[in-house]
Amino acid sequence: MSRRRQAGEAVAIRHSHPSSAAARVVHALGGLICRSAARFLWRCTIRYDVPLPPPPLLFASNHRAFLDPPAIGMCLRNPVAYFARASLWKVAPIRVMLNLMNSIPVERENPGASSMKGAIGRLREGISVLVFPEGTRTRSGRLGPLHDGPALFARRAGVAIVPVYLFRSNDAWPRGKILPRLCEARIAIRFGPPIVAPKNISSREQDAWVMRRVEAWLRLAEKSFYAGSRRTSR
């Protein structure tokens, strides 16, 4: 591949950010469709511990299934950016949709740096970002170890982290299945309070401080959901 072609592809990714109006229209229509489908097919319930502050925010969620990104996005009034493989931008129809969804390209050769640069860039543009600190979908259904990347993104962009917990989305779309199961699970989504580290400690301590509280909230939410599930099954 020539250097000119490589440069052209890089520019296409960097400068393809859609207008806020178009993104809002796509987000509003997609959210309406997804909420209607989720409530009808999976009796989805949504809970906010406190009212969400205005964007930009960094949403840090547990990860159970392919349903998780649209499930969280449908709960938000404003568009939220997602991560996607950079190679997907080479396919024109997919590129258009990714751009309308404010997606962040992740390069296979350098995923860590491209994720960080893209997330911080979107946040500084005023667009909220969704991340999954576990890094992959859970196999057990339980919350796994968390990476500290989200705290770094939030600190450098100067935004709060909002923890999010999804329950039973893996029952609606089990790992290894091509398509989701309809009407076989009751999905629940809960948004926690915004978390911001104190300024009177070092950067590394701020990141650790934030991630401890994100993990503590997620584990408490998980415990609450499973306890409620056991009570209703009796």
Describe it.
- The protein is α/β, with parallel strands linked by helices and 234 residues long.
- The protein has one domain (3-233): 3-Layer(aba) Sandwich (Glycerol-3-phosphate (1)-acyltransferase), CATH 3.40.1130.
- Helices cover 46% and strands 13% of the residues.
- The protein has eight helices and eight strands.
- Strand 4, helix 4 and strand 5 (104-106) form a beta-alpha-beta unit.
- It is globular.
- Residues 1-19 have low confidence and may be disordered.
Give a brief description:
The chain is of the alpha/beta class.
Give a quick set of tags describing it.
alpha/beta; 46% helix; globular; two-stranded parallel ribbon; disordered N terminus; 13% strand; 234 residues; 8 helices
The outline comes out as globular
Compute the number of structural domains.
1
User: What kind of sheet is the major sheet?
Assistant: 6 strands, mixed
Q: Mean pLDDT across all residues, rounded?
A: 86
Structural class: alpha/beta
- The CATH topology is Glycerol-3-phosphate (1)-acyltransferase
Radius of gyration: 18 Å
Strand order of the largest sheet: 1-8-7-2-6-3
Count of strand segments: 8
* Secondary-structure element string: HHEEHEEHEHEHEHEH
Could you name the CATH class? Alpha Beta
Uncertain residue segments:
1-19
Measured distance between first and last alpha carbons: 62 Å
> Tally the helices: what do you get?
8
Percent of residues in β-strands: 5-15%
Going by CATH, the architecture would be: 3-Layer(aba) Sandwich
Helix content: 40-55%
